[in-house]
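ZP: hey, is the C2G complex queued? I don't see it on the tracker
AM: it wasn't, my bad. submitting now with these inputs:
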Amino acid sequence: MAAKTVITFGTFDVLHVGHIRVLNRAAAHGDQLVVGVSSDALNFSKKGRNPVFSQSERVEMVSNLKVVDAVFVEESLELKRDYITQFGADVLVMGDDWSGKFDFVSDLCDVVYLPRTPSVSTTAIIEHIVTTRPAPVA
Ligand code: C2G
């Protein structure tokens, strides 16, 4: 039987346990895991700010996780169907903050939304670091 390929997408900025868990659980849905890491330009267009870590650093971090078999740069949210076809993905897995958003590819592959890990996010980590930074010495 052919190997089952899982695809997932994300920014994976300031890598944290929520990212690791979703990648581990995504990998468990098949035999190989392909990850689309969103480009700096895509992030800027979505969020109006650059990620803390550049796309090449984010690609390097995600590529070095043992459950990840291949990584590519996601240039546009509109290209989901092309990426799924290009990598021959059988399943698309995302956290459930994206629930329903990728159902439009369900004619190409299965679509699975996994429960998001509560109480952790890149934004909260950045805010925590900013608010706990010591006041400058007068
Ligand atoms: N995630 C999670 N639990 C968290 C935080 C994130 O399960 N506490 C999951 C998200 O649901 C997503 C993945 O981790 O499946 C990556 O999250 P982000 O880096 O925040 O990615 P995002 O900016 O949502 O980009 O085409 C889709 C986009 O590229 C997704």
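AM: back. The longest helix spans residues 17-27.
ZP: great, adding it to the tracker
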